[in-house]
């Protein structure tokens, strides 16, 4: 049976929203996507967690800074408290069971926060040095800057690459990486681009959008490999 992959969603006007790129990426890699609403009744989620083989945390809006001990910065964007609570609960339950997690963009940040890390609410106003353009104006299929991968990391093992180009659509980023996690890739300006668990079988957070680079085909094989490796971990 193909693995069941829960995919988190954004909210807008009381509707759940999700780019079909995530659904297509999971389907093409051999999984069955299950689109998840932001359920706040956490005592009813145990059966859902048990049913799913993997969790894909999608991108989206900003994150409530009170979750990591700060108050809102003037550059903080739209937050969805129900989404924050739902995703944090799901992350913790998946980690307890050592079930695979692939966290993308916002997902990479909420993953880090759920396990005790923190983040920049706005990198451009909170980091006192010149930064790259992290909210690119190019199409999503275009890799706009490079990431440098930690030798020997899970990300290195998956891609077999120490440097490659990624797309970029964020103004927030992880700052302190949580205990039992490690930084596994950075941009040339030092912004954290990937984190991973040191104690779980497959828990990987990526600041970019590999699902958006899949249409590039052979030029971005690492994007295919990331999803294929995630789905393989979900089968084990």
Overall description:
This protein has a nine-stranded mixed sheet with strand order 4-1-5-6-13-12-11-8-9, with helices on both faces. The protein has 236 residues and is α/β, with parallel strands linked by helices. Strand 5, helix 3 and strand 6 (101-104) form a beta-alpha-beta unit. The mean pLDDT is 95. The protein has helices spanning 20-28, 46-51, 81-96, 106-114, 123-126, 154-159, 221-235, and strands spanning 4-7, 10-12, 15-17, 32-35, 54-57, 101-104, 119-120, 145-149, 163-166, 173-174, 181-187, 192-197, 203-206. It contains seven helices and 13 strands.
E-strand count: 13
Average of the residue pLDDT scores = 95
The spatial strand order of the largest sheet comes to 4-1-5-6-13-12-11-8-9
Helix proportion range: 25-40%
Task: List unreliable stretches of 5+ residues.
Answer: none
Give the end-to-end Cα distance, rounded to a whole number of Å: 12 Å
Using only C-alpha atoms, the radius of gyration works out to 16 Å
> Count the helices. How many?
7
What are the defining features of this structure?
236 residues; alpha/beta; two-stranded antiparallel sheet; 13 strands; globular
Short description:
This protein has 236 residues and is an alpha/beta fold. The protein is built from seven helices and 13 strands.
